[in-house]
Protein 1
Amino acid sequence: MGTITEILISKSPDEPMCSLRQVNAIAGRGLEGDRYFTKKGTFTPEPHKPDFELTLIEKEKIDEFVEETGLDFEAKDARRNLVTVGVDLNRLVDKAFQIGEVKVKGIRLCEPCNYLAKQTYRETLKGLVHKGGLRAQILSDGAIKVGDAITEYEQDQPG
């Protein structure tokens, strides 16, 4: 279905995203070391909300944005945690899927915001609408690695 090409975290909203080869995902918390895991993110909700645990974006959508605008914009500029290829993330809203050994569930689209536009370019607001990625809930603990496959699975139904 798809593959992880890059893993990015930031310890605080003011720091640039740093690239990792592997990261630990903790169910109900997020990615170890990331600003939302430590509740230091710009939009950290209180109480906790599952759609702030993990964010993903398609490399193809970033490339399309760069081609359309001519702007110098890289995956790290989008401030999403995981960069993917070969998967339509919009289709994964309300779907269970797996990244390597980690089970997750798509919650909602990760639309561009004013904070992102202020950090990069005003054009990101319009240019990445419905292309800004996916917010997901982490359902099981485990390591996520660059190169991990993204696969759908049937989520167990209660009862």
Protein 2
Amino acid sequence: MHVDLSNRTAIVTGASSGIGRGIALALADAGARVVVADLEETPPSDADRTTAERVDDLGGTAAFVECDVTDDDAVAALVDATVERFGGLDILVNNAGISHAGTVEETTPEEWHRVLDVNLTGVYHGARHAMPYLKESDAPRIVNVASQLAFVAQPEKPAYLASKGGVVSLTRSLAVDYADVPVLVNAVCPGVVETELTRDSLADPERRAEFERQTLLPYLGQPEDVGAMAAFLASDHARFVTGQSFVVDGGYTAQ
């Protein structure tokens, strides 16, 4: 099965590093034009090339747009800039996200709202401004990045769990509301993925072994694993799939 996204334009938020970078590169490798949206364009700590530069290395087309997904006007400007440069929009990947550790007693209202604003309201902003253009596409897709923690709980992550559970529910809502177009809307729910954000934790042998024990497979996820699922959902191969959440966690939630 060959995933072909030629002549399609995608926006990926939070794409300068980590899972977002993996998704952007997967879409570009399948032929999509990719707009890399993030707070800044700097490459991840373990790389010397930005995401847009890596897309260029793959022979693809990319542009970077600075964007804070909590800012409704900034997201509107991101979508407008994409359409102005590439003539339309076919794929929106709402990936930008943050986490916070602490029980509800230890979480301030500011910390709570910050996590919800980025992880959930950012998805609303993206869908709200992208939808008019997606409805003009021949194959419109939204892929929201949630988490395995939308389905299972871990200690001291109430804001994160609430936000990712909300992303799964919003995914279903969007799929129902726009099925008549149809705009296909699905979610990818990663488990533990090796990125620069998890590298410090995974450098501790005991901590790494703990994470590895949580999966059925003898290895942890990589950004490209999530990217492959996102590219599939953005493709014609997923033409009969909408309103679903796909867990990419090495079998953690199967136990």
Protein 3
Amino acid sequence: VVNFDGPIVFVVISRYHGGAFVVFSKTLNENMTVLAVEGSFASVIGGAPAAAVVFAGDVAKRTAADPRVADLERRLRTSAPGARARLQAELDDVRAAVRAEKISEVAAEFDGVHSIHRAVEVGSVDKVISPARIRPEIIATIEAFQNR
């Protein structure tokens, strides 16, 4: 990418993350044009991995604050010894389900902020296009390069 002498048209059709976000960065080659299909995403990491790893603390706090988890924890603390094993198993199941919900929430928030339109605003993507415009935009970009 860095040493290529000619037009490069990179089309994001789904997700533009991680290595692709770095390798196909417009800062590496001034002849790079990045187009993105409507509905695609751009960020260094996707929302689900970000929620599970980067924002794990936030997910844990939201899980602990959920009324279903808090109620079972309270009931477990005040339960008779014979009921503790059953309540602990129930708490483990509920906590796992709530954690999955909270990961989904945080992932959606992350993906909402790191939209393809934000990538256009910060200059990582040149234009968001409809699927029907992929071919015409590629042709126009190459022709514009040839006519410079």
